[in-house]
């Protein structure tokens, strides 16, 4: 039975933004058991006029006979009336939180002895780490402006630079039991809406082509949209289906002290955003209600993961040890097995349990594999969007048939998304590059060699000391406007379905998510707070077609994007690094982790060169052939063994004393 008799005074100094409160969450009931909704809120007591920093404090009765671990966080408090319930319901929207790998500690029987100690938000044990929150009750709506999205028809406005400001407006007030995002009084006119100062909904903006490209609160006259700019305007709301967005345009005035001139405005309505992602073109109207141009905007709607709640005991989202350099990552396990050059192919079918286990056995620190959904929404491991399945032709149906069916085989080209897990695992499936008359791999009788293992099976079956680099497959739009695949899945549901088994069965395994699609990376970051995300990019290349989204076009643009959304780093195409190795320093100067992938990596000399450049991870094929490791073990296994030895040593010294 725990004894609660120790009053603890929490004090922390930091600078908050308008509407932010400060809270404490920890491993005991009084501090919410790592659930931020049940944590305690502190009170602002002092504001330092010289630097703007504040001191927040509060007290709690803590157990005497238990080590108490805790973290500080900042949040927006949303109070709203709930029908058939007494009082108000409180929702805390986490804005920032301390993510040092080890939380703060109050030891057993320790007391403050009336000493005034003030913690510095995010800093303790010689380390500073603060990250943005993740989605809990709120939804994020991103409006993306790029490729000169503002077209003004009025000649006097041609060639001008504009500032863009977004204001959410509540248009559905029929539900009394919900928070009104940006709700307005019916007596207000549109100017009142523009001028209202509120801490919720939050509007932030990031410019991808600026040195300082992190999201910041929107200013009074919005953000400058230069020619060639890439802007992301981001709104956090609690009921996106009832919010419309007022977009104002101001002529950018270079004269100091002059207010920008209001040129016009437009509305982005709910029926302009009918899916999780898409684009809309809306007319721009002058203050005198004349049509003067149009705005083309891409949008993304990110909802919190359904059916799973993240807690705050630990986050690996941006945790990376200095010793984790030059990690060897098995591409699709033991390597790609369907290349044109047979000598470069793995002898084990790629992306199978056997292939993943083979790479782990031969010293891979991590294994990279691809995940997508079957028709019945099961996360499976497979690279390509399409497969072939064989169909034997019926007797007598062929023109000129002599009744012999030998060799009469039709190949049906099918997308993975049209086949259930049972169909994928029971049908005779051929890779798109296999010769169907003479299959490359005769492995039908070996269970671990079968394609389409489930993600859950990989998480449960493989050595927990080998890390996973899980690439999320999703269709990309090419620069010519075409798509790799017409994907029917709702994007939020698609990602939630993949995330849940990882969050449930990941255990202590080191796991990284990665994707070529920038929006997927954004969503993976916002939907969970535990695992890191890396942006896959091909950059400048002569080997692949360019994608439509400018964030994919080169490494510097990728650095801007990754810095803006606060993910771990980039996984770049080796061709681009070998073309210009100075880009390694560019990435690392921003505190980002850097992996690389590509055919060029399948060479011991190149692997050595990339390690010497300082890359954190190299993804390559046939790790059993190309790895120069003397001891074929994962670095995570080596470190776990060393940590265990140190714990035994400490235990022995304690018992001896």
Protein model, in words:
Helix content is 17%, strand content 32%. It is of the alpha+beta class and 657 residues long. An 8-stranded parallel β-barrel has the order 24-25-30-31-32-33-34-35, surrounded by 6 helices. Strands 13, 14, 16, 17, 19, 22 and 23 form a 7-stranded antiparallel sheet that branches. Strands 2, 3, 6, 7, 8 and 12 form a 6-stranded antiparallel sheet that branches. The protein is globular.
Defining traits:
657 residues; globular
Low-confidence stretches: 175-182
Helix content, binned percent: 10-25%
What is the tally of helical segments? 12
Radius of gyration: 28 Å
Coarse morphology: globular
What does the average pLDDT come to?
A: 88
Q: How far apart, in Å, are the first and last alpha carbons?
A: 29 Å
Q: DSSP strand (E) fraction? A: 25-35%
Annotate the secondary structure layout.
Layout: E1 4-14, E2 20-26, E3 40-41, E4 43-47, E5 54-63, E6 68-81, E7 88-98, E8 104-106, E9 119-120, E10 123-124, E11 127-128, E12 130-132, E13 139-145, E14 150-152, E15 162-170, H1 190-195, E16 202-207, E17 216-217, E18 223-225, E19 231-237, E20 243-251, E21 261-268, E22 277-285, E23 291-302, E24 327-331, H2 353-361, E25 366-373, E26 379-381, E27 386-392, E28 409-415, H3 421-426, E29 429-430, H4 455-461, E30 467-472, H5 491-505, E31 511-515, H6 518-527, E32 533-537, H7 555-565, E33 569-573, H8 574-579, H9 582-589, E34 593-597, H10 604-613, E35 617-620, H11 623-626, H12 635-656
Parallel strand pairs: 1-9, 24-25, 24-35, 25-30, 30-31, 31-32, 32-33, 33-34, 34-35
Antiparallel strand pairs: 1-5, 2-3, 2-6, 4-5, 6-7, 6-8, 7-12, 10-11, 13-19, 13-23, 14-23, 15-18, 15-20, 16-17, 16-19, 20-21, 22-23, 25-26, 27-28, 27-29
């Amino acid at each position: 039975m725990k004894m609660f008799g120790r009053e603890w005074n929490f004090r922390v100094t930091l600078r908050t933004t308008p509407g932010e409160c400060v809270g404490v969450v920890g491993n005991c009931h009084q501090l919410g058991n790592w659930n931020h909704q049940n944590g305690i809120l502190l009170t602002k007591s002092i504001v330092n006029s010289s630097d703007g920093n504040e001191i927040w404090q509060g007290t709690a009765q803590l157990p005497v006979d238990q080590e108490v671990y805790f973290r500080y966080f900042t949040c927006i408090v949303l109070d709203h009336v709930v029908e058939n319930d007494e009082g108000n319901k409180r929702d805390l929207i986490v804005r920032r939180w301390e993510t040092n790998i080890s939380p703060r500690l109050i030891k057993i029987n320790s007391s403050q002895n009336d000493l005034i100690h003030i913690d510095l938000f995010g800093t303790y044990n010689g380390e500073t780490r603060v990250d943005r929150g993740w989605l809990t009750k709120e939804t994020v709506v991103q409006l993306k402006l790029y490729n000169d999205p503002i077209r003004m028809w009025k000649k006097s406005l041609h060639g001008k630079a504009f500032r863009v400001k977004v204001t959410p407006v509540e248009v559905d007030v029929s539900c009394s039991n919900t928070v009104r995002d940006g709700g307005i009084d019916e007596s207000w006119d549109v100017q009142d809406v523009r001028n209202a100062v509120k801490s919720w909904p939050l509007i932030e903006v990031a410019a991808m082509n600026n040195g300082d490209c992190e999201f910041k609160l929107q200013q009074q006259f919005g953000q400058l949209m230069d020619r060639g700019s890439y802007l992301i305007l981001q709104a956090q709301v609690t009921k996106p289906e009832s919010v419309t967005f007022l977009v104002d345009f101001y002529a950018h005035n270079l004269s100091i002290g002059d207010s920008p001139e209001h040129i016009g405005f437009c509305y982005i309505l709910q029926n302009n955003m009918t899916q999780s992602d898409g684009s809309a073109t809306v007319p721009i109207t002058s203050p005198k209600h004349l049509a003067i141009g149009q705005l083309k905007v891409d949008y993304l709607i990110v909802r919190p993961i359904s059916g799973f709640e993240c807690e705050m005991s630990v986050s690996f989202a941006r945790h990376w040890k200095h010793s984790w350099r030059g990690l060897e990552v098995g591409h699709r396990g033991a390597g790609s097995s369907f290349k044109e050059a047979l000598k470069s192919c793995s002898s084990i079918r790629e992306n199978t349990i056997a292939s993943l286990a083979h790479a782990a056995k031969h010293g891979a620190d991590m294994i990279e594999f691809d995940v997508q959904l079957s028709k019945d929404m099961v996360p499976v491991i497979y690279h390509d969007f399409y497969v072939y399945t064989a169909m034997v032709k019926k007797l007598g149906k062929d023109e000129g048939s002599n009744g012999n069916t030998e060799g009469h085989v039709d190949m049906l080209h099918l997308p993975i998304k049209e086949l259930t897990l049972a169909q994928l695992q029971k049908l005779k499936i051929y890779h798109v590059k296999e010769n169907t008359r003479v299959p490359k791999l005769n492995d039908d009788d070996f269970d671990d060699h079968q394609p389409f293992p489930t993600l859950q099976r990989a998480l449960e079956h493989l050595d927990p000391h080998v890390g996973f680099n899980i690439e999320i497959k999703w269709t990309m739009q090419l620069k010519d406007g075409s798509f790799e695949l017409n994907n029917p899945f709702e994007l939020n549901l698609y990602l939630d379905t993949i995330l849940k088994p990882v969050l449930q069965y990941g255990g202590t395994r080191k796991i990284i998510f990665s994707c070529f699609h920038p929006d997927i990376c954004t969503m993976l970051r916002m939907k969970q707070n535990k695992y890191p995300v890396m942006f896959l990019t091909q950059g400048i290349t002569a080997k692949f077609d360019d994608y439509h989204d400018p964030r994919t076009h080169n490494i510097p643009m990728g650095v801007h994007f990754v810095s803006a959304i606060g993910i771990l780093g980039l996984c770049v195409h080796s061709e681009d690094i070998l073309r210009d190795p100075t880009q390694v320093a560019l990435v690392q100067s921003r505190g980002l982790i850097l992996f690389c992938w590509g055919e060029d990596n399948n060479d011991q000399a190149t692997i050595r060169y990339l390690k010497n450049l300082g890359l954190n991870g190299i993804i390559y094929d046939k790790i059993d052939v190309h790895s120069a490791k003397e001891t074929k073990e994962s670095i995570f296994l080596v470190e776990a063994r060393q940590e265990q030895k140190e714990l035994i040593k400490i235990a022995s010294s304690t018992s001896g004393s």
